[in-house]
Amino acid sequence: MGPRAENQMSSVKKVEEKPAAGELAEEMAAFRSYLKAKGFRVTREREAIAEAILRNHEHFDVDELFMALRSKKPISKASIYRAIPLMIESGILAEVYLEDGHMHYEKVYGREHHSHLRCLNCRRIFEFSAPELAQVEKRIARQEGFKSLGHKFEIWGLCSHCQVEKD
Predict the structure, then answer these.
(1) Are residues 124 and 63 located together in one domain of the fold?
(2) What Å distances lie between residue 22 and 27, 53, 108, 154, CA to CA?
């Protein structure tokens, strides 16, 4: 983000992640509890997929996850596709954006709600938190008699680096 954009978004802050100490064990326990509560088996494949997702702090798609897992354990893409909805329903994973015909995901468990700036040239993703967006969401929902369950906010364009390259 260039200096001008940072000045214009003075109330927007970069997203901070919580410390990693003990985080994975807590997240895995939460996922196991979710599976058991919903009557699903806790399998080695589901655990391997969940662990790979929970260790990943970047946005990813199924192909990237499959390639990362394939080198360690024999897991099929079908298993990944079946596990992802469970991870989303459990609150550990979220769909972020659709690009090139496939969905990209990110781990959200234990992270502050945030939004994205997405550069259409270099494809980098910049995360930010803007508490005022939650206030706008609540106000609009109240005005319309709507019960909001959340929101996604994404701005796409060119990052400061790509703007300089285009000039």
Answers:
(1) no
(2) 9, 16, 16, 31
pLDDT tens per residue, range 18-62: 445 478 888 899 999 999 999 999 999 999 999 999 988 888 999
Query: 66-79 pLDDT, tens per residue?
Result: 999 988 878 999 99
Question: What predicted TM-score, i.e. pTM, was given to this entire model?
Answer: 0.71
The domain in which residue 29 lies consists of 18-111
66-73: long-range contacts, CB 8 A cutoff, minimum separation 24: 72/48, 73/45, 73/48
Statement to judge: residues 58 and 86 lie in one domain: yes
- CA–CA separation, 83 and 71 (whole Å): 19
| Tokens representing residue 123 in the block | 């494809």
**Amino acid identity, residue 59?**
H
CATH number at residue 138: 3.30.1490.190
The verdict on 139 and 159 lying in the same domain is yes
pLDDT band at 109 (very low <50, low <70, confident <90, very high): confident
82 lies in the same domain as 162: no
